[in-house]
Amino acid sequence: MISGFRFWPPPSKESWQYRTFWALFRVFVLAISVLCIADFHSRGTPSVLQSVLGWVTLIVGFGSASLITVQLGWGNAHGEANSLKTGGWFSRSRNPIYVASIVGMLGLGLVVNSLFVTTLLAFWAAM
Fold first, then answer.
1. Residues 6+ apart with CB under 8 A from 62
2. Residues 62-95 as b or e (16 or more Cβ within 10 Å = b)
3. Alpha helix (H) ranges present in 73-114?
4. What distance in Å separates the CA atoms of residue 43 and residue 48, rounded to the nearest whole number?
């Protein structure tokens, strides 16, 4: 590791780290969205149970991640450290937005039913 180097959280909104992270994040989200459409149900039509479980998990996961982001505050959630949160969701997990997003990604993988998309989502979750 390079001494003093820090990518996240970025030193400021004007830093190259901030701009690079958000550019890459947007490219990845756009690419996943396009692939979800292009490779939709490439492994066949999922069962009703898989579809229902997928949609519920997707909505609960990404819905919770959105709610927690609002509660945390937009600036804190996007790398502008304002204060350490220790109550609510943050009393149970240091990174509840990540946990909720991973649940949402699991649901998306079940709904799309694509090995390629599921692999990319697993890679994203691991990062």
1. 100, 101, 104, 107
2. bebbeebbebbeeebebbeeeeebeeebbeeeee
3. 74-77, 96-112
4. 15
- Among 91, 57, 58, 85, CA closest to 70: 85
C-beta of residue 117 within 8 angstroms of C-beta of residue 40: no
- Tens of pLDDT along 33-61? 999 999 999 999 999 999 999 999 999 99
Cα–Cα separations (whole angstroms), residue 49 to 12, 36, 61, 81, 101: 46, 20, 18, 41, 21
Read off the pTM: 0.80
- Say which residue the tokens 């459409």 belong to: 37
How far apart, in whole angstroms, are the C-alpha atoms of residue 39 and residue 52? Answer: 19
State both tokens at 72: 């945390």
Contact (Cβ atoms closer than 8 angstroms) between residue 105 and residue 57: no
